Amino acid sequence: MKYDAPIQDMLFLLNEWIGIDRLTSLPGYEEVDADLVEAILEEAGKFASTELLTINREGDEHGAVFEDGSVRTPPGFKEAYTQFIENGWTGIDADPDHGGQGLPTLLQNFIDEIIGATNVSFKLYCELSHGAYHLIDHAASDEIRELYLPKMVEGTWSGTMCLTEPQCGTDLGLLNTKAEANSDGTYKISGAKIFVSSGDHDLTENILHLVIARIDGAPAGTRGISLFLVPKFLVNDDGSLGERNEVHTASIEHKMGIRASATCTLNFDGAKGYLIGEENRGLAAMFKMMNIERITVGLQGLGMSEIAYQNALDYAQERTQSKAPAPRPDDSKPADPIIFQPEMQRQLLTIRSQVEGARAMAVYAALNVDIMERSTDEAAVADAQNLVALFTPVIKAHFSDLGMSSTLSAQQIFGGHGYVREHGMEQLVRDCRIAPIYEGTNEVQAIDLVARKLTGKTGEFASRFMDDWQKYLAEHANDEDLATLVRPAAAALQSLIETTGWVRDKLQSDEATARGAASQYLRLFALTIIACFWVQVIVSIRDKSGAFYDMKRKVAHFYMQQVLPETAAIATTIVNGAEALANISVDELTG
Ligand SMILES: Cc1cc2nc3c(=O)[nH]c(=O)nc-3n(C[C@H](O)[C@H](O)[C@H](O)COP(=O)(O)OP(=O)(O)OC[C@H]3O[C@@H](n4cnc5c(N)ncnc54)[C@H](O)[C@@H]3O)c2cc1C
Fold this sequence. Notes:
about 60% helix, Butyryl-Coa Dehydrogenase, subunit A, domain 1, single chain, two-stranded antiparallel sheet, 11 strands, binds flavin-adenine dinucleotide, Butyryl-CoA Dehydrogenase, subunit A, domain 2, alpha+beta, 20 helices
């Protein structure tokens, strides 16, 4: 398996489409420049395609091992992690006050895509820590931040997210884990958490669990959830490690994929915990981490689509089978490389056109995270917050679905050789499968989009966002050079706007119908908005010539002709299919 980080595309989107000055004009990013970004991406690409990709296969075969109450990561993981922290990858977007580099989220997200492409299991050990760092930085007291965060940035302590319990998955209000106040202001945490990624391992000296629990007497449901920091080893005031806390690993899961990532059941047996933020406001604080993780899970799908594409493209050039339709590349040969089969080209371009469009969407979202966190312009911050809120469920769900469709399609290009282990394509499919499930299933993301992000302030923003695109496309409507892009994008956008109105009406009059359409609506939204981004990308290069730009135009055209038309069917299904869904009751379904 090979991987070349798509640095050219990343730099193109940043420098030529977005314009790096939109980042460097933000307070704190004045020192960032194109050379620095390129140098960091080159290093990330090198590290990922050598160190991380090399141990990915063995990680899958060996898996994480649970022995004598502790988890051991597969061979090579410790060495790679040591290099990872020595090279400073744990502090890219962390605060310089904690030893971080204070670089943009946009750069962090590029790195996340690169690492996710080459070794998702390894990424999970780092990505939960990254989210935990930002949550603690956002919500904890100064004392806790000073004591814990430098070690997290250094990479010697890691973090986890402990939400799920056997009876409490999507619905966190059902949690049973209890917190009992101690006389010294700390809490005694008791309960069992399951499916905790990186819940135990041998990569770091300490593990900081972020645990949601209900304080004695707190209201039922999500209004009574508080958030606690529960270290594996208690930390003394001087930052040294103290005694072992009462949190123990009971087992790890045996899974379809990401086998090198330890998915743990943790027992909290009266463990000492520190309240983060206010009592009963734990879920709101937790969302800081969950939103970061949702985007990074989306980037995982994007990265895995990219590596799947690259390997399928290579294989399609090497594998000779059947004669290609005329004109053949070489009439003297008994068979041609399968890349000359239009069907193979179509499958490859379907991945590529979606990946490049999705990457543009990801860049735009990351820019808005940076604006939201750094800008001093209040109106710009408010818009950026709304944009990020609107895009987060879309990126999580659409990109992870894209990861599945891309890895399956790339596996198909390998034929039977993709089904067997040799080329690593079946591992990609297995490793990718978790992305639509964890971090809030894709169904739950769709409901978040429809029920929360289309309503209230974000809903008002969403309408303005779509209207702005409509104006933008109208401005380019008479440009014949762009007609093959603008017309389909404008038609899809019109349909999205109409369907949004229909979904909003249903939310008021018939919520079940709106919810029944949520996943389809999310796909319609994503495919359409990516089409709009594609138009804007092509407009930005209209005076440029050369192979890279010519191919961009052709890939954009492919997206409009071969991918976007699905939106017409989705819009029809949402509106015309609602009755068929409502028509069958649960009794009939189960009868
Ligand atoms: C490998 C792995 C790693 C994980 N890592 C972590 C971790 O680090 N920390 C952590 O806390 N958890 C973690 N999880 C848990 C993961 O986030 C949950 O599995 C996920 O949120 C779904 O919960 P559930 O499995 O209980 O499914 P359920 O909640 O039981 O859902 C089952 C099905 O019902 C659907 N459904 C449920 N409610 C609704 C609804 N309101 N509307 C529409 N459909 C609905 C779901 O979409 C799903 O298809 C991990 C899980 C796995 C497998």
